[in-house]
Design the sequence.
């Protein structure tokens, strides 16, 4: 799972150019694909793309990922033409260029946030969660609006022939647990998955953190592909038809230890239900050694 | 009402996320002439200790912890006006921050809340903290523990660099690390003294690092 930061490093380009320029991002993905030979690519720059489109202000740096300098207020969250807002057009351009480069038969995934994570990122996590517990009515409305915007984005990605991969960095079991997930996160995800399915695509989710506490909730999302960070065997008894994707710990790639990477990849390959997809558990660290990634990839070939 | 009853009710109100009730009981404790230090230590902090236990047991998650902490803070704001200097326990000074390049601080904030309520003095440097800043403040505060956090794999190297600098500059400083992409293995590899896999573990770890008893 490659983000703009690793691609920028591969290309020796400033990160603030790569994550704002769809052509450069595509160039990075193509270069990475030539290097790592994955079975598909994922169009992804950083976690803030859609939040920025909603109005969140970011600061960019040539050497570090963007960060938020001003959050939105709940009343700022509005239905927008997200396809033409912020960096989204550049991301869609990346998707279009990848589609064209790799051909129609090669899967190109497009990463977009689940509505809960998008709302939490946009409003600041702490404030959003406190309001949610307080039972502020606005929470439901905020999530509805975020879902509407994300549906538009998903449609645009589907129009380009991409497979939508819903990323849930903050709708995570570790952070919010099963009750809040079921009440506030799952409905928005379901809307996106249902739309993807209606349009002949797949129900694909990447979730961060602990999934053991979300066993019941995740199994009810009727996923086709499930990407995760931590292995939890009982979940697959509940969803035997989902393709699993994971979960080589990214800290191994940061530690520059090829034996550990290969051992972890083997462990994943032996553990993942078949068919499974070997991948890193989360984004590859920016300065991960390419040889370690290639070692992981070659383990799967072996 | 006895002081013990007030303490128990304060603790229960924190756990139940009842900010208004915490405020009311805090005022009542002062009106009845009870020790504000004891109300903080045996009421509010005890409540947050229980919240930490519930968090570890996965009965509470981050949203509940945040709202409990808000209730505790509301009570603390009332009681602290009457606190006599030096009467609150200080188990040690912890300098806490998110390493350079990372702006995610929710985990760090929860660790800070639980450590504070456990009786440590916390100096919070916030997020995206330069190594030089850690060094400066650890020195000026004569800190016992540095607590470093990162949520992103991309900034794990920052953590490594900060730990390396702190180890060489402060031989007696205890260093604890935490954050989603980390592991005990990683902590060991960068020579940190302790890896806290969650906020409650960080509280236990802080006691252990300083050789203090921890009563769950």
Sequence:
């Amino acid at each position: 799972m490659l983000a703009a930061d690793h691609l920028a490093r591969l290309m020796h380009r400033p990160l603030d150019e790569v994550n704002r320029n769809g052509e450069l991002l595509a160039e990075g993905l193509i270069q990475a694909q030539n290097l790592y030979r994955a079975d598909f690519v994922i169009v992804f720059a950083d976690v803030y793309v859609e939040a920025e489109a909603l109005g969140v202000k970011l600061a960019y740096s040539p050497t570090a990922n963007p960060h938020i300098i001003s959050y939105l207020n709940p009343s700022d969250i509005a239905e927008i033409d997200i396809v033409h807002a912020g960096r989204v057009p550049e991301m869609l351009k990346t998707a279009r260029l990848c589609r064209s480069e790799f051909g129609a038969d090669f899967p190109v995934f497009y990463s977009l946030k689940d509505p809960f994570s998008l709302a939490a990122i946009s409003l600041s996590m702490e404030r959003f969660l406190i309001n949610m517990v307080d039972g502020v009515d606005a929470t439901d409305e905020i999530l509805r609006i975020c879902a509407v915007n994300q549906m538009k984005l998903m449609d645009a990605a589907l129009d380009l022939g991409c497979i939508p991969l819903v990323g849930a960095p903050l709708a995570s079991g570790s952070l919010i647990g099963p009750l809040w997930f079921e009440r506030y996160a799952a409905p928005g995800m379901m809307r996106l998955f249902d739309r993807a399915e209606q349009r002949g695509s797949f129900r694909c989710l990447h979730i961060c953190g602990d999934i053991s506490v979300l066993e019941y909730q995740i199994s009810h999302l009727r996923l086709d592909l499930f990407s995760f960070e931590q292995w939890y065997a009982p979940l697959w008894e509940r969803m035997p038809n989902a393709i699993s994707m994971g979960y080589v710990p990214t800290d191994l790639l940061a530690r520059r230890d090829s034996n550990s990477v290969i051992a972890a990849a083997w462990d994943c390959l032996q553990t993942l239900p078949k068919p499974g997809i070997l991948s890193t558990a989360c984004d590859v660290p920016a300065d991960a050694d390419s040889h370690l990634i290639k070692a992981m990839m070659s383990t799967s070939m072996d | 009402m006895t002081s013990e009853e007030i303490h128990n009710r304060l603790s229960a109100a924190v756990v139940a996320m009842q900010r208004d009730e915490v405020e009311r009981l805090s005022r009542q404790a002062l009106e009845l002439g009870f020790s504000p230090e004891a109300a903080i230590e045996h009421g509010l902090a005890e409540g947050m200790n229980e919240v930490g236990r519930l968090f570890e047991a996965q009965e509470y998650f981050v949203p509940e912890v945040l709202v409990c902490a808000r209730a505790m803070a509301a009570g603390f704001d009332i009681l602290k006006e009457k606190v006599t200097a030096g009467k609150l326990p200080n188990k040690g000074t912890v300098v806490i921050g998110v390493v350079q390049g990372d702006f995610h601080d929710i985990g760090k904030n929860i660790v800070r809340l639980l450590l504070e309520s456990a009786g440590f003095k916390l100096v919070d440097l916030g997020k995206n903290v330069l190594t030089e800043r850690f060094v400066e403040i650890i020195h000026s505060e004569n800190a016992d523990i540095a607590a470093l956090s990162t949520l992103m794999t991309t900034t794990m190297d920052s953590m490594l660099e900060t730990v390396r600098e702190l180890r060489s500059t402060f031989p007696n400083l205890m260093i604890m690390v935490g954050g989603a992409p980390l592991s005990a293995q990683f902590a060991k590899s960068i020579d940190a003294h302790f890896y806290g896999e969650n906020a409650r573990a960080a509280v236990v770890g802080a006691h252990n690092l300083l050789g203090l008893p921890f009563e769950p």
The two ends of chain A are 20 Å apart (CA to CA). The interface with chain B takes residues 3, 5, 64-65, 67-68, 125-126, 129-130, 132-134, 174-177, 180, 208-209, 213, 249-251, 253-255, 282-287 of chain A (CB under 8 Å).
